[in-house]
Write a structure and sequence with these properties.
Blueprint (H helix, E strand, L loop, with lengths): L13 H4 L22 E3 L1 H7 L6 E6 L9 H14 L4 E5 L3 H13 L2 E7 L5 H9 L3 E5 L3 H14 L3 E2 L5 H7 L1 H10 L5 E5 L4 H16 L7 E7 L4 H4 L21 H11 L2 E5 L1 H15 L9 H11 L9 E6 L7 H7 L10 H8 L3
Helix pairs in contact: 3-4, 3-7, 4-5, 7-9, 8-9, 9-11, 12-13
């Protein structure tokens, strides 16, 4: 069983910790906020709720505890490390929110100018707040993410500016360390890995990480990948570009994933599956995460659990005796408006004991 000391006072960030497994220039100085080393949380109450009669083990890889609150920090530390080494002065990205916040934070850490392109009115306030707080130049466009990505790709080709979206190969090098950590924490790869699929960089990266660990002998096998998209933003499931994707799960509101082909290869090679779930199914899973396990996630993060739950309910997946990890990609404070909209509102009482007593133990 592989074990790694993840004591917080020793953790140097993923570039320093996994440098010999990452395709970065060897002497590049890490641009780090000490990302990674996120917890793998056992979730047996959730497992029993999903499949009461199945004896399976479920863990949540809680990427919402990275420095800017999402898994994007893994890729951004690698991309920014390489960008600084290459002499970049300005970085740019298109984003539905999490990439914007992460790029802005790591650019600030590196002393670079950061430009982020976001679809106007289609970004969660918690994510926009992060990008603004870190000092990025935030530019709204009257279009969707896919149009924004096309714009920044053109800008990086025609201007002296470095693109840090997931089409940047160093992003994948950083994000694959999530798979390394799961193996280090669990002792081997799980049987299934469940995760949301938007731009498809994360499923691509995790599959690369698992296959590299298996090839080196640090994992005995690779998991099957279960990718989950929102049904109105499910181009891979439908096999065609979605021109106007819509979903409450803003982080995966993408109609033409940049890593589509790589994600399809990961699904095929792993013997996995991809499916679409409704916004209602995503919200149900989102509530279950918080109320059964105390894990507060943004809605898109719950898509993996929603997909797992749907497949089990349909009899399409036998989970008896299996070990399953679901990647929780972003923290719940990324999208606080959803909580206020979907949760019961606080009540108001007089500030005295009788009022509290009557509320808690009504006669």
């Amino acid at each position: 069983m592989r074990q790694t000391d993840h004591s917080s006072h020793q953790w140097p960030g993923i570039v320093a910790h996994y440098r010999n497994r990452m395709n970065l220039v060897g002497n590049a100085r890490p641009i780090t906020l000490y990302e990674g080393n996120t917890p793998l949380i056992p979730a047996q109450r959730l497992a029993r709720a999903i499949a009461p009669d199945s004896d399976f083990k479920l863990w949540l890889k809680y990427e919402g505890l990275n420095p800017t609150g999402s898994f994007k920090d893994r890729g951004m530390t690698a991309a920014m490390t390489q960008a600084v080494h290459d002499g970049a002065q300005v970085v740019i990205c298109a984003s539905t929110g999490n990439t914007a916040a992460s790029a802005a934070a790591y650019a600030a850490r590196a002393g670079l100018r950061c430009v982020v392109i976001v679809p106007e009115g289609k970004i969660a306030q918690g994510k926009l707040a992060g990008a603004l707080a870190y000092g990025a130049d935030v530019v709204n466009i009257t279009g969707n993410f896919d149009q924004g990505l096309a714009l920044v790709r053109e800008a990086s080709e025609r201007l002296p500016i470095t693109l840090v979206n997931s089409v940047n190969p160093y992003r994948i090098e950083g994000q694959k360390t999530g798979a390394f950590e799961i193996v280090d924490q669990l002792g081997d790869a799980p049987d299934w890995l469940c995760l949301p699929v938007g731009n498809a960089g994360n499923i691509t990266a995790y599959w690369r990480g698992f296959t590299e660990y298996a090839a080196s002998g640090d994992a005995a096998h690779t998991p099957k990948m279960l990718g989950v998209q929102a049904e109105r933003a499910a181009p891979i499931v439908r096999g065609e570009i979605v021109r106007n994707p819509e979903t409450i799960a803003t982080a995966i509101r993408i109609g033409n994933p940049a890593r589509w082909q790589e994600a399809s290869a990961a699904l095929d090679e792993s013997g996995g599956h991809i499916l679409a779930v409704s916004d209602d199914e995503i919200l149900d899973a989102w509530r279950m995460l918080s109320r059964l396990e105390g894990v507060f996630a943004e809605p898109a993060s719950a898509a993996g659990i929603a997909g797992l739950r749907a497949r089990i309910a349909r009899g399409e997946m036998d989970v008896r005796g299996t070990r399953i990890v679901s990647v929780i990609t972003g923290h719940g404070l990324k999208d606080p408006a959803i909580v206020l909209k979907e949760s019961a509102q606080p009540i108001t009482l007089k500030p005295d004991f009788a009022a509290i007593q009557d509320y808690l133990f009504p006669k």
